[in-house]
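Margin note: ligand = nicotinamide-adenine-dinucleotide.
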Amino acid sequence: TEGQVITCKAAVAYEPNKPLVIEDVQVAPPQAGEVRIKILFTALCHTDAYTWSGKDPEGLFPCILGHEAAGIVESVGEGVSEVKPGDHVIPCYQAECRECKFCKSGKTNLCGKVRAATGVGIMMNDRKTRFSINGKPIYHFMGTSTFSQYSVVHDVSVAKIDPSAPLEKVCLLGCGVPTGLGAVWNTAKVEPGSIVAVFGLGTVGLAVAEGAKAAGASRIIGIDIDNNKFKRAKDFGVTEFINPKDHEKPIQQVIVDQTDGGVDYSFECIGNVSVMRAALECCHKGWGTSVIVGVAASGQEISTRPFQLVTGRVWKGTAFGGFKSRSQVPWLVDKYMKKEIKVDEYITHNLTLGEINKAFDLMHEGGCLRCVLTM
Ligand code: NAD
Ligand code: AHE
Ligand code: ZN
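Resulting structure:
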């Protein structure tokens, strides 16, 4: 198949919120600096639902969504040296070129090399897409487009992993689990004994709890409006639960009252700007740090009294948990293989690519964490 157009199945999003359509899609061969991957398993992340909803200013239609996956390299374009056909890989929406201003700064995991192209659904080389249906182009998404049996990505967006790792599990290391763990370890740098609050107990929030437990947090307060999330949360390290619906007072007040003035660290893992405010305001005066992980819709803005920051609270954000993707995803896979981090426990459902609309429905039902699709 090397050098040839491949026709395969993919789930195409034609319009916001309209059911995805399984189509025969033509996938062009990889050009210079590109890699064509046979995607074997993909999970769904809340961010896919967000872009599908039409609220993402970078959302373009028609497109192929999906960014939490694992597969095997089918072929590589000119000049690609770090991966070869047959390598087991995880596509990374957050690239790492090791050469740009961002990569060299040592201060961030963001990479500037291909971001302008991935934000507008095209490939850098010729500013076109590699997906089409009968000659009509289909946009890429986040530089990954994993809801397709084959996808073309930039070489700086491919992490080569241990070939003995089970791809049907480690696909989760493409987004949600690293994001939560890294928010705690890299962005907040939670210390032993800390009191932590996690808003939203989906995969990202539970990974925050898991990371906080590993960091030695003394209390991990989980907040969610879905009581179904509470049962499982204990296994991930949550020590106490609060459902804001059970309280009349604002949730930040409830937490401040229960923690002698507030938490050391809080994490917003929902994408709701009023919860972001509550997450900041439940932090302890003088040092409490709140990390925004959730992605909020276009037009939404955060607000608080500046006094909250004047009196020492810190507001931060994180993308992919601050992990450098190509360097650290393989390390996370190794940690999983050594049973040092959970992955299997986040997978509550398994379906096939053909059942993808059902998988999105599940996401909005109580209790679902990750649904992994077999391609
Ligand atoms: P999810 O839908 O599985 O989990 C969200 C949880 O929040 C659910 O359990 C839901 O019941 C709960 N929730 C909703 N509204 C609430 C409220 N008002 N108060 C308390 N709980 C509430 O989502 P996920 O896949 O875990 O992703 C979480 C968020 O993180 C999303 O916004 C996603 O887009 C974002 N995300 C960001 C990054 C990043 O790099 N920054 C990476 C992955 C995901
Ligand atoms: N296009 C969106 C931005 C969405 C966003 O913030 N994405 C996160 C990853 S979410 C994964 O589930 C991210 O990595 N952001 C940094 C970046 O470079 O995109 C919007 O709202 O504009
Ligand atoms: Zn994601």
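The chain has a mean pLDDT of 97.
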